[in-house]
Amino acid sequence: MSKALQFSKKELKEFLDTKVEQYNHPRFIESDPIQVPHLFSKKEDIEIAGFLTATIAWGNRKSIIKNAHKMMQLLDHSPYDFVCNHQASDLESLSDFVHRTFNGQDFIQFIKSLHHIYNHHNGLEAVFSTYSKTQTLQYAIHQFKNHFFEIEHLSRTQKHVSDPLKNSAAKRLNMMLRWFVRHDNSGVDFGIWKTISPSLLSCPLDVHSGNVARKLGLLKRKQNDSKALTELDKALRKLDANDPVKYDFALFGLGVFEGF
Asked: Rounded to an integer, what distance in angstroms lies between the CA atom of residue 28 and that of residue 26?
């Protein structure tokens, strides 16, 4: 592990703020999975497209984007209508889908569980808002998973929804929450969830953002788990308590695009 660079707090904030400005820009959308929910304008379409895209957001980025577009095609480019109004026979067309270990049976289960969330829990935002705590949304992610799988389900599919209370950094769900909750004028994140404060968001922690955070002295823990996420949250909230996860753009951009 390379030694952390030495910045004063002021220098670090200035450096990262510059990188946020560089990457929190509409051109970021072109090469990022967030382009898929950006195909839609209706709130529920954005939510479902974003959730499904985030679910398969691991591995090669081009493959993620290609397969997320394929998901939307299989849902007739009307994800909310498909979730709410599909017949059992409509689900058969999803059975051949595959992205790494997420297969067609998982996809079908996700559609059934989303139907349950929108019909019995008033939608994705309502679930997360109900369980949002004063400091973090990690407990809300845990409760969302409970509700998502409270209907009859395939046990194998549970692994595709992370649980922070089982020491997961829940990178993909925290990324999705950033998309839906953050609101600024850059045009990247949607800001469609008004009932949750951006101050509660956690950084999507993965290999790239974790390594950059360690190099900048924002993170010491070696594993990218829930404990590391808590440590990184504290560091980023010292830089901006109201919008700490804007720094995801800086950490991700430095890691992926600059090989920092």
From this structure: 5
